[in-house]
Recover the amino acids of this structure.
């Protein structure tokens, strides 16, 4: 059986007598690596027009719900669709590495109306590459941000 890698497509397996063996609304649950939790601490100052982020984390599970490990993990921050930061995951929780330096926290220029998105990229044990959208917020005119609707379906690419 061949199953296309269209993660938003559903799947239904039936026997010849039309008995449904498996029904899925999305192919995401079949991926070897699934984001179970992820995020960072966020703060926005409209007066300073700065966006602050720290305490990055991501955890994963396999299709059976067991803990799974990602390889070559990195967090990315995008402002209005343009990448402004990449930090490689380290052995120490909540700490990243960027340009050979330890990163405990970051700050970014951010004016009211700017959209800030956090993603996580990695590979699984089979070499599939993933980019998981984690969170997107828009900066408001006061010291607050509003969550934007975000699909948590990863972008998946095969190794070259």
């Amino acid at each position: 059986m061949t199953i296309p890698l269209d993660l938003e497509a559903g799947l239904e397996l039936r026997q010849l007598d039309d008995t449904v063996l498996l029904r899925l609304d999305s192919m995401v649950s079949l991926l070897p690596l699934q984001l179970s939790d992820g995020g960072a601490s966020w703060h926005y100052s409209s007066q300073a027009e700065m966006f602050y982020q720290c305490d990055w984390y991501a955890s994963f599970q396999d299709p059976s719900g067991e803990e799974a490990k990602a390889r070559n993990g990195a967090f990315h921050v995008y402002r209005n669709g343009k990448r402004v930061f990449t930090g490689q995951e380290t052995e120490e929780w909540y700490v990243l590495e960027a340009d050979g330096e330890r990163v405990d926290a970051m700050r970014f220029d951010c004016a009211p109306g700017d959209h800030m998105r956090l993603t996580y990229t990695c590979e699984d044990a089979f070499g599939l590459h993933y980019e998981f959208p984690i969170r997107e917020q828009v900066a408001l005119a006061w010291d607050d941000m509003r969550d934007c609707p975000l699909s948590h379906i990863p972008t998946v690419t095969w190794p070259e």
In short: The chain has a mean pLDDT of 88. The chain is about 0% helix and 55% strand. The first strand starts at residue 11 and ends at 14.
